[in-house]
Design a protein that fits this description.
Structural class: alpha/beta
Number of helices: 30
Radius of gyration: 29 Å
Largest sheet: 9 strands, mixed
């Protein structure tokens, strides 16, 4: 029998698992087993647990929740961790030593010192229990060691439902086992942010409170213990979720139920302290809901008076439309803050018209973009009266950025955040520690309130799923379906590729190099650091450069000479990035996310990283691109020219690097992403009814037109 059974709850995101499993398996004290309780053993996270189990016999995978893990445990003591929790070095040895001290053998519940790291990566808060009631139900389950025989003797198991930590802690406290404390920090937890838009926020916690209070009433606790238990439970509700739930959908019903529980189980002699608790006891929902804003009436009045007459009219118009019922057959799409018909939203829009013709699909654009919109696409100008109407009444919304702050998330609506790239650079709240980027981002509080409107988030690979989970901590669902805009890389025919090249003016027989640099958050003299005219001239007649530039290259004299010489074609203004990628034979980029999409074409990629060190320190990145590149890396312009003119850009080393890169970042892109999104979101089909992912080695991307080179299959 092992000394410890460590039960790890495994949910949907595989990326957090190594953070928990590796520190456990590296413990100096080795007499333990790890039981990974997988809610979905067939998920990527479940598959990763299987890989750990193959490498280390101490890892066991079970299907189900923590209760299933508890039933499978064989250790003398049980510890519970969630994926993402970190067991500190030497923790198990310290726990074992504490339990072997005189009197330690009789300890049923050992409270462990721990550190909570805020979700925004602030300073950790360390908690120890030397001077705290060991029967406190607020003490965390994930920082406690339990004697398994004690749990078995009292028939203790995790309650059914959600938010079960509080119910479990309450039941353990009622069992009144022998308790002790270990002040050493044994566990570090990265807190998850509670989403203001979470459906049914706190309802599970009310179930747990009611369960514990019913059990306490049946057990006949002494009055002092009953009062302490009651105060702890409702203190938890008021501190963590009652404000949140009272402002969310169904908040009134939640508040009334909480009030009934308060009045029904309030022990004799308990004094109701604080305005919020008194309002709960009285059932004064309207006053409770208004409480957070009562201190800001003057500021709110000034803000309203400062609005222009036009803005006030728009606000009143929108408020009127919000009173009208939702249109269950209306879907709204937008991309890049209204800059046209593009990216993932456009790809989903096209597929929706094919598979869900009963859905009226509307695309939002700026007024100046109307002339460029396809004739058969219903377009609405952002800011117009029709815009506020469709935003108020649409059942479905799709965007690759966020809608403006004034947009209200109505109950019953579904918002899909499609994103517009795989993240190399830091995103969301991960930007906080990078001052220049954080200053440009603005209020992170406002950002997160916009994120709370998301119901679903698209991912094209597991890396993205993991990043979105941390960068945008909220209660949305991950749809690991691939990026719909990349479907064309698998569905375009050779004739279509040739037609695009002809339309762009790519000379027949020339190798088209797509040069697509990214934006910098710091000053950069592009002309001085990259001589585009010289670059095109030294490449020779074999190549033509397709330039997809940011505004910082506009007006460059070298650019104009290169264009006049016929060695460069400026494709910056073209709206369809996919067309430009299909027309090219290779990609040259620095740190742009276009590299992840382009890898689907299985064509050569060259990374030009002349300022990588500055970019990494200034912008922040999620992995070392130069250590895991999609092809050859050049640090100077001379190196870049040599890679291209020597032919190394398309050699075996390039193919091997690209193969590994594709395996990691092209995981879900297989040409069927848009169909999966439409069937799941607009048609309501179950996961098992969606098109099955095509294995990477069986996918056939559109071939390049100018050069035919052997492909290296994925490993």
């Amino acid at each position: 029998m092992p000394r410890f059974s460590i039960i790890v709850s495994v949910h949907d995101v595989a990326g957090r698992l190594p953070t928990t499993l590796d520190p456990v398996l590296d413990q100096s004290f080795a007499d333990f087993e790890v039981i990974a309780a997988c809610a979905d053993p067939g998920s990527p996270a479940g598959a990763l647990v299987g890989e750990y189990a193959e490498r280390d016999a101490r890892v066991v995978r079970v299907a189900g929740t923590r209760e299933a893990g508890l039933q499978a445990a064989a250790g003398a003591y049980v510890l519970f961790l969630d994926a993402g929790d970190v067991l500190t070095p030497g923790a198990l040895a310290g726990i074992d030593a504490r339990l072997r001290e005189p009197g330690g053998a009789g300890v049923d519940v050992l409270r462990l010192g721990h550190a909570r790291v805020p979700w925004w990566e602030g300073e950790p808060v360390v908690e120890v229990f030397e001077d705290r009631d060991p029967a406190d139900v607020r003490l965390p389950v994930w920082a406690t060691a339990y004697r398994r025989a004690f749990l078995r003797e009292h028939g203790l198991g995790f309650p059914a439902g959600r938010d079960t930590d509080l119910g479990w802690a309450g039941l353990v406290a009622l069992a009144a086992g022998e308790s002790a404390a270990l002040p050493t920090v044994c566990v570090r937890r990265h807190e998850r942010r509670r989403s203001a838009g979470a459906s049914g926020a706190g309802a599970g916690l009310l179930d747990q409170v009611e369960l514990v209070l019913e059990r306490a009433a049946a057990q006949g606790l002494p009055e002092d213990r009953a009062r302490a238990l009651f105060a702890q439970l409702f203190g938890q509700l008021l501190a963590e979720v009652l404000d949140l739930a009272a402002t969310a959908s169904g908040g009134r019903a939640f508040f009334r139920r909480a009030g009934r529980l308060y009045r029904r189980y309030r022990p004799a002699g308990h004094r109701t302290r604080g305005v919020r608790a008194r309002l709960l006891r009285r059932g004064a929902y309207t006053a409770f809901r208004a409480l957070p804003v009562l201190g800001r009436p003057v500021a709110r009045a000034r803000a309203y008076a400062g609005r222009s007459a036009l803005r006030r009219r728009r606000a009143l118009t929108y408020a009127w439309y919000l009173r009208r019922p939702l249109d269950d057959n209306l879907a709204v799409f937008a991309a890049y803050w209204g800059r046209g018909y593009a990216c993932n939203p456009a790809a989903i829009h096209r597929k929706a018209r094919e598979l869900a013709p009963h859905i009226r699909s509307v695309f939002l654009v700026k007024g100046k973009e109307l002339p460029h919109m396809p004739d058969d696409v219903e377009s609405v100008v952002i800011g117009s009266r029709r815009y506020w109407e469709v935003m108020a009444r649409a059942k479905y919304t799709f965007n690759n950025v966020n809608f403006e702050h004034a947009v209200v998330k109505r109950p019953g609506t579904v918002h899909v955040q499609t994103h517009h790239g795989t993240p190399l650079k830091r995103m969301g709240v991960d930007q906080i520690e990078y001052r220049a980027v954080a200053a440009a981002t603005g209020s992170f509080g406002k950002l997160m309130r916009r994120v709370d409107r998301w119901d679903c988030s698209l991912s094209s690979n597991a890396h993205s799923t993991e990043v979105w989970s941390g960068a945008y901590p909220s209660a949305f669902e991950h749809l690991e379906y691939g990026y719909p805009r990349n479907d064309r890389f698998y569905t375009a025919a050779p004739g279509e590729v040739a037609a695009i090249r002809e339309r762009l003016g790519v000379p027949e027989g020339r190798v088209a190099l797509l040069y697509a640099p990214t934006y910098r958050d710091y000053p950069r003299d592009v002309s001085a650091q990259f001589d585009l005219a010289r670059f095109c001239a030294e490449l020779g007649d074999e190549f033509v450069v397709l330039l997809r530039a940011h505004y910082f290259l506009d007006g460059d004299a070298g650019l104009r000479r290169a264009v006049a010489d016929g060695r460069l074609i400026d494709v910056t203004s073209l709206r369809d990035t996919e067309d430009v990628c299909l027309a090219s034979d290779a990609l040259i980029t620095d740190y742009s996310s276009i590299m992840f999409d382009y890898a689907n074409l299985d064509r050569p990629i060259v990374t030009y990283a002349d300022d990588w060190d500055v970019y990494r320190e200034t912008r922040g990145v999620y992995f070392d691109l130069l250590a895991e590149p999609p092809g050859h890396v050049a640090r100077t312009q001379d190196e870049l020219i040599e890679v291209l003119t020597s032919g190394r850009w398309a050699d075996g080393r390039s193919a091997a690097l690209r193969s590994a890169f594709r395996e990691r970042f092209c995981e879900f892109d297989d040409g069927q992403a848009a169909e999966r999104v439409v069937r799941r979101v607009l048609l309501g089909q179950a996961e098992e009814e969606l098109p099955a992912p095509i294995p990477l080695r069986e996918r056939l991307p559109a071939p390049a037109a100018a050069v035919s080179r052997p492909r290296t299959p994925a490993r």
